[in-house]
Amino acid sequence: MSVSAAAPSGPSSYQVRTWMAAAIAGMGGLLFGYDTGMISGAQLFIEQDFDVSAGGIGLVVSAVTAGALVGALLSSGLTARWSRRAVIALSAVVFIVGAVAAAAAPSVAVLVAARFVIGLGIGFASTVVPLYIAELVPVASRGSMVALFQLAITLGILVAYLVNAAYADDGEWRAVFALACAPATVLLLGMLVLPESPRWLFAAGREDEARRVLETLRDPDDPQTARELEEIRATVEADRARPRESLARALTSPLARMILVVGIGLGVFQQITGINTIIYYAPTILGKAGLGTESSVMATAGIGGLNFVATIVALAVVDRINRRTMLIGGMAGMALSMAVLAVTFAVDDFDGPLRWVAVGSLLAFIACFAVSWGWGFWVMASEIYPLFIRGQAVSIGNAVQWTANFAVSLLFPILLAAWGGAVLFSVLAGFGVLALVFTYRLVPETRGLTLEEIEREWRRRAGVADDAAAAPAA
Ligand code: BGC
Q1: Whether pLDDT at 124 is above 90
Q2: What percent of the chain has pLDDT over 90?
Q3: Which of 40, 66, 427, 432 is deepest in the core (most CB within 10 A)?
Q4: What is the tens place of the pLDDT at every residue in 216-270?
Q5: Under a CB-based contact definition with an 8 Å cutoff, are residues 118 and 98 in contact?
Q6: What pTM was computed for the model?
Q7: What is the DSSP string of 449-472?
Q8: Ligand 1 pocket test: which of 65, 148, 150, 153 has the largest number of ligand atoms within 8 Å of its C-beta?
Q9: How far is the CA of 27 from the centre of ligand 1 (A)?
Q10: How far apart (Å, rounded) are the C-alpha atoms in residues 37 and 284?
Q11: Residue 318 in contact with residue 380, Cβ under 8 Å?
Q12: What residue owns the CA closest to ligand 1's atom 8?
């Protein structure tokens, strides 16, 4: 049994254990971010080493997002059979295999295949890590704990920008790839010693283990711990009592459809409002706004730093401010920043101060994203789905989110050339307005509710019988 049997020494030791588990699992986010950020620099040297075409480089860059969307889809089958921990460990192994293959790649074809494998690992991790954390931590800190995943993503992006800068002189792109094995190894070793998700254990019929795990993470003398166990039991039992239906039927039931619309909408809007046009292409945008190469690279590093720092700020307040308030406020700022960027491109006079307005609008967009939709999508995706479809629905929602990411990163340079910045950034701002309407009308508030209470709220909205509520209380 991987959970320490030692008697807990006091309340803080429960918190330390939970934080450790969330932080180690969050390594999955670091891998995700590192890989997102590193390729912008590495591609320049890969181009020189392999004498590859622009199309070939496009494939090297986008293979990760393609792999991630396949990985997210496959997670559905994996989470139905394997425990959360096992799937996360698998993601680390797959990632290490991909990173080693990429570092040693003798040709572009091998490199593209290796990047696809890395993407598979990221797809698994991005689906199961937030789920695992949400199922492990107490309700009062669930937002900030799952948001650790986003913090790890932004740290990964920042580290990658810095590693890129450090290796820029000697073109050591193979070392840049190999470095990613370090956090993947921490993730793998972590999964060997961290506890299993108590909610998963319960659902798998391993009730005693679930109780033991929960009691190493929560104070057994706190009445809230007994209540939490009872609530998990009631939900699992109500779930078992329902007539068995195929997964496909469960996923297409009116209740599941209603929830999937929200989950998928959150992922699509997180992407199509433009975050990765900045994360992947900031130097291109800044170049068009008249900045020299060196200033563009500096400003890009600044964007990475701001993204990380603003996420720390978000983490501090995430469990104190309603999720909806942050999503709506953040998106209003994002849409406005995009609109301002569009105006600077429409005026198109970047010799004067206007270029700094363009830089400022990029920075404002990043700050608004980091305090809202950055963590918001991952946190909501980990908590809105009811247990009976949780693993599968998260996987579908994430696969669609990765598809949107893939489409945006592929289309952005093409549309920028075809339409110009004024039109393209206006369209992104328009998507922001749609995202506002969507959030206001459809996204529920989840802060302060247990996963079981959230499920009950959905059933109430859909007018579906709530058998868990009828189960006996502790
Ligand atoms: C998004 C990524 C993005 C990153 C930037 C994440 O929440 O899913 O696509 O690159 O935030 O910080």
Answers
A1: yes
A2: 49
A3: 432
A4: 888 888 888 888 888 888 888 877 776 666 667 778 888 999 999 999 999 999 9
A5: yes
A6: 0.86
A7: --HHHHHHHHHHHHT---TGGGSP
A8: 153
A9: 15
A10: 15
A11: no
A12: 374
> What's the 374 CA to ligand 1 centre distance in angstroms?
6
pLDDT tens digits for range 277-288: 888 778 778 888
The angle at the Cα of 69, spanning 152 to 55, to the nearest 5 degrees, equals: 100
Ligand 1 center–CA 369 separation, angstroms: 9
Our answer on whether the CB atom of 154 is closer than 6 Å to any ligand 1 atom is yes
Helix or strand or coil: residue 375? helix
In single-letter form, the type of residue at position 222 comes to D
Q: Write the residue with the smallest CA distance to atom 11 of ligand 1.
A: 374
Mean pLDDT of the chain: 87
Q: Which of 30, 35, 36, 373 to mutate to test the pocket of ligand 1 (most atoms within 8 A of CB)?
A: 36
Which tokens is 1 given?
């049994």
Rounded to 10 degrees, the C-alpha dihedral 154/155/156/162 comes to 110
Residue with tokens 């792109």: 173
Token readout for 130 is 């937030």
454 Cβ closer than 6 Å to some ligand 1 atom: no
- What six digits make up the tokens of 434? 């749609």
The DSSP output letter for 8 is: P
Which pLDDT tens digit goes with each residue over 350-382? 888 898 999 999 999 999 999 999 999 999 998
Q: How far apart are CA 168 and CA 40, in angstroms?
A: 11
CB-ligand 1 contact for 126 (6 Å cutoff)? no
Mean pLDDT of 325-354: 94
pLDDT tens, residue by residue, 61-119: 888 999 999 999 998 888 878 999 999 999 999 999 999 999 999 999 999 999 999 99
* Residue bearing the CA closest to ligand 1, atom 7: 374
Residues 6+ positions from 69 with CB-CB distance below 8 Å: 119, 123, 399, 402, 403, 405, 406
Helix (H) or strand (E) holding 171: none
Distance 187 CA to ligand 1 centre (A): 20
Tell me the Ramachandran region of residue 82: left when phi exceeds 0, alpha when psi lies from -120 to 50, beta otherwise: beta
User: pLDDT band at 401, cuts 50/70/90?
Assistant: very high
